[in-house]
Amino acid sequence: MNLPKVITGTVQHGHELGRRFDTPTANITPSEDVSDLAHGVYYSDITIDGITYHSITNLGVRPTVSSSGRVSAETFIYDLDKDIYDKNVSVTLLDFRRRETKFSTTEELFETVKTDLLAGRSYHGI
Predict the structure, then answer these.
(1) Strand ranges of the sheet holding 40-48, from the earlier edge strand across to the other edge
(2) Cβ burial 90-115 (10 Å sphere, 16+ → b, else e)
(3) Measured CA angle at 32 (ends 72, 34), to 5 deg
(4) How far apart are CA 42 and CA 6, in angstroms?
(5) Each residue of 11-50: pLDDT tens digit?
(6) Average pLDDT over residues 87-104
(7) Which of 48, 47, 50, 58 is CA-nearest to residue 113?
(8) Domain boundaries, the chain
(9) Alpha carbons within 13 A on the beta-carbon side of 116
(10) What are the CA-CA distances from residue 14 to residues 2, 4, 73, 86, 101 (Å)?
């Protein structure tokens, strides 16, 4: 796995699960081929309108909440409060945290995401 890796795309409406964490979420379908990357959670940075924010990204098929099999990048952005739908963004995957997992319940997913978000804050020093 060659990191860092930059993926780009346009922010689309998703399942709006990030709202449950009070953390804006950017859902994109990567423009680049990401077949060389493991599906999972990455520490990341996201650039929107020329400004870079710390983030954490799930790259994969989101098996707990979707059965489409379509690969997407779902990025949780720290400390951002603005509408970013339809914006072109670039996400830099910095380091791998864990493999994507299909959870038995959404509550189990949410608990793991909370842990991921805390680990991301620590990784970024925020």
Answers:
(1) 5-10, 88-99, 40-48, 51-60, 72-77, 25-28
(2) ebbbbeebeeeeeeeeeeebeeebee
(3) 60
(4) 12
(5) 998 766 666 656 667 899 998 889 889 999 999 999 999 9
(6) 96
(7) 58
(8) 5-121
(9) 28
(10) 28, 25, 11, 12, 19
Give the C-alpha separation, 65 to 108, whole Å: 12
Which residues neighbour 36 within 8 Å (Cβ) at sequence distance 6 or greater? 1, 2
Domain 5-121: CATH architecture, name and number where available: Beta Barrel (2.40)
Pairing of strands 25-28, 51-60: unpaired
* Type of residue found at 116: D
- What's the pLDDT score for residue 80? 86
The alpha carbon of 20 is separated from its chain's Cα centroid by a whole number of angstroms, namely 15
pLDDT of 41 reads 97
| Token pair of 78 as six digits | 């720290």
Q: Which structure tokens are listed for 106?
A: 């959404």
Q: CA 52 to CA 45: how far, in whole Å? A: 6
* Measured distance CA(109)–CA(99) in Å, rounded: 13
Residue 102 tokens, joined: 């299909």
